[in-house]
Design a protein that fits this description.
89 residues, mainly alpha
Length: 89
């Protein structure tokens, strides 16, 4: 949580971060693997600045992936499209 708060402070994210709910079915190895995964992502966020267009593209890709996954269970479902990306000068 200290690393997460450090990244939040670094990027000026005001929303507070809470500890996740404990899952009694997770083993210590599950928790350790998740910590490693989060730590890698945090290191990447601190080392590589993202451009707004990169963030927009990643969000768009994620929305498309979620829509494809939902299509398997709910054929015909459509997620609201993102507004067009506008580059500010």
């Amino acid at each position: 949580m200290i690393r997460v708060r450090c990244v939040s402070d670094h990027w000026g994210i005001a929303k507070s971060v809470n500890l996740p709910v404990v899952n009694p079915y997770h083993t210590p190895s599950n928790v350790y693997m998740k910590i490693l995964e989060v730590n890698r992502e945090l290191n990447f966020l601190l080392d590589v600045p993202f451009s707004p267009s990169t963030v927009y593209r990643r969000v768009l890709e994620t929305i498309q992936l979620v829509e494809n996954l939902l299509q398997n269970r709910y054929p015909g479902i459509k997620i609201t499209e993102l507004p067009e990306f506008v580059r500010e000068n």
